[in-house]
Design brief:
Layout (H helix, E strand, L loop, with lengths): L1 H7 L11 H4 L17 E7 L2 E13 L2 E8 L4 E8 L4 E5 L3 H8 L5 E9 L4 E9 L5 E2 L5 E5 L15 E2 L1 E2 L6 H11 L5 E2 L2 E10 H4 L5 E8 L2 E2 L6 E2 L3 E2 L2 E10 L3 E12 L6 E12 L1
Parallel strand pairs: 10-20, 12-20
Antiparallel strand pairs: 1-2, 1-9, 2-3, 3-4, 4-5, 5-6, 6-7, 7-8, 7-9, 11-13, 13-18, 14-15, 14-16, 14-19, 17-18, 19-20
């Protein structure tokens, strides 16, 4: 499906190269948001004349600045803090605990991204690089163009970083096996045979919410939601642990991404997100 989307998503230029104050009266409404103070929303990279949804970001307003979830051509999501400057925004990675260990040891650098609005092009110029512990940057001179993420009925991409791991195979349904993997490596064993792939996780039922609420999940495979109109019910609660489980048909070798978006609904109210569990699998 991703290849189809990449082929179908056309990029429509807004035209014009004038400065923002001169161009605003003549540009389409959707282009007027291209400003350092109006960047909240979903954005996708442009390659040639088509959108490339493998590289995308969601920008959110926070504390007078921005926070972003950035996906840079791989399945991993990076949470980034955005600081507004005169003409651009500097985004710097907020590492999770696992990433922080590598960064603090000098074995990895934080991701850093500069976003420069370009109203005349109805786009963002995004410079994707890194910064080390000594605040020395590695930023390429060439920008990647991003445009507002196009909407397509029946197609939903994920953006949010996971709160915790999911597990494959036996560990997907056996809490002891899952805990052993978590204690040993900090996550689930990613290797599994392609075909039918059991994916699951466990949560503290009391922390999830009242037992009178209903619990279900949305499922994402390789970034795409696979149950647009049919939430998957959560499993039973045993010994205070709620089981979240689904079997995917994935007859493809290579790296693939499984996500479980876990929800709670109480007393007919709104469906609210509890958390996201995910794993990048290596299918053989």
């Amino acid at each position: 499906m991703r290849l189809l989307l990449m082929g179908l998503w056309a990029v429509f230029a807004c035209g014009g190269t004038a400065e923002p104050e001169q161009a605003e009266p003549d540009v389409p409404e959707r282009c007027k948001k291209i400003h350092v103070d109006r960047l909240a929303g979903d954005w996708v990279a442009v390659r040639g004349n088509a959108a490339d949804p493998k590289t995308r970001m969601r920008v959110m307003e926070k504390d007078g600045g921005y926070e972003a979830w950035f996906i840079g051509g791989v399945f991993a999501r990076t949470t980034m803090k955005g600081d507004k400057r005169d003409k651009d925004i500097q985004f710097t990675e907020i590492p999770n605990a696992r990433r922080k260990k590598f960064i603090d040891a000098g074995e990895a650098d934080r991701a850093r991204v500069y976003v420069e609005p370009s109203l005349g092009d109805c786009a963002l110029k995004v410079f994707i690089g890194s910064v080390d512990l000594k605040d020395k940057e590695k930023i390429p001179p060439t920008a990647v163009e991003f445009m507002p993420f196009p909407e397509q009925e029946g197609v939903t991409f994920s953006f949010r970083p996971a709160d915790g791991p999911a597990f494959l195979g036996k560990a997907a349904s056996d809490g002891k096996t899952a805990k052993a993997q978590l204690d040993e490596t900090g996550g689930g064993d990613p290797v599994h045979e392609m075909g039918t792939v059991p994916v699951g996780t466990f949560s503290d039922a009391a922390a999830d919410g009242d037992e009178g609420c209903t619990y279900d999940m949305d499922l994402y495979f390789d970034d795409l939601k696979v149950n647009e109109h049919s939430p998957k019910a959560a499993g039973a609660v045993e010994n205070g642990r709620r089981h979240w489980y689904h079997e995917w048909e994935a007859p493809f070798s290579g790296n693939h991404h499984f996500e479980l978006y876990r929800y709670r609904t109480c007393d007919g109210g709104e469906r609210s997100l509890i958390g996201v569990s995910a794993i990048e699998a290596v299918l053989q």
